[in-house]
Write a structure and sequence with these properties.
Order of helices and strands: EHEEHHHHHH
Number of helices: 7
Shape: elongated
Structural class: mainly alpha
Strand order of the largest sheet: 1-2-3
């Protein structure tokens, strides 16, 4: 019968009890689903996670640069939208900005206003002032459209 649980512990004490000696380097091993995994495996896994996080950060910076340079493509728009759906405050603010300016999308001031209000609830600095600016830029018809938006939220 093969054990399928996971357990981590320094192996040296167990090894000493069974064999009376420890092979150098085994003190950093663990048992994982019945097989030995060395320290290097865990270190490589940690490094991989760090590299993946750095790649995500770099991708987000490139997306922000695309917004600053007014060249948002559907790829960047999708990334911003996904992060905004997860209530990322910076993404919501950027999403509002691109709708207010019409960067990569058709300008939609009521949607920008709604997003700035959401950003303000998440304590984004200047979100309330930006919402006010968007509100002032809206036509009377667009302002009337806001009441159904508020009812949905």
């Amino acid at each position: 019968m093969r054990w399928t649980g996971n357990i981590s512990f320094p192996i040296s004490k167990l090894w000493l009890q069974d064999s009376g000696s420890v092979t150098p380097g085994l003190e950093q091993c663990c048992i994982f689903k019945g097989s030995f995994i060395g320290y290097d495996w865990f270190e490589n896994k940690r490094k991989l996670r760090e590299l993946e996080e750095q790649a995500r950060i770099l991708q987000w910076q490139q997306t922000l640069n695309a917004v600053k340079e007014n060249r948002v493509t559907p790829v960047e728009l999708k990334e911003i939208e996904q992060k905004a759906e997860k209530n990322d405050p910076q993404a919501i603010e950027v999403y509002a900005y691109i709708y207010a300016r019409g960067i990569g999308v058709k300008p939609d001031l009521p949607k920008a206003f709604q997003l700035y209000q959401k950003a303000e609830k998440l304590n984004v600095p200047n979100a309330l002032q930006n919402a006010a600016k968007v509100y002032k830029a809206m036509s009377p018809k667009q302002r009337k459209e806001l009441s159904p938006l508020k009812a949905k939220n």
